[in-house]
Amino acid sequence: SLLHIFACNLHRTLTHEERSDIINDKDLPVALDNVRHILQHGKHSQLQVLQFIHDAELKDIFPNVWIALKILLMLPVTVVNGERSFSKLRLIKTYIRSMMANKRLTLLAVLSFENAIGQSLYLSEAVLQFVKQHALSKVPQMNKETK
């Protein structure tokens, strides 16, 4: 049965150096079936079953179920949520890259325009015009008396 396959897989996973004191793969399917009969009505989440075993003080009666549920509830769920978060991460990275590329392209266009304007200027004429406006005669000269 599927329950027995689950129990064997869990037992194999928790076995270290051919020894596993944590879960008994032969007792777990029977214990899970007994817990299912005790709960008998409605569907219950793993957390609700664990809470029931704790509240009814059945930890010593169903130790394999108690340990298996604690392991199950402590493992992070990575299959569905992880794929979604990775795809969201990929979307965010793509968006940031495109925004950076757009910003760089905009700055490159501005540099190109400034370069075109700079190339069109005649530098020698600009220097001559500056010198004419700020002629040396306007620069204060030191008198021989102030020395």
UniProtKB/TrEMBL annotation:
GO terms for molecular function: protein dimerization activity. Residues 45-115 form the HAT C-terminal dimerisation domain. It comes from the Eukaryota. It holds the Pfam family Dimer_Tnp_hAT. This is HAT C-terminal dimerisation domain-containing protein. The lineage of its organism: Eukaryota, Metazoa, Chordata, Craniata, Vertebrata.
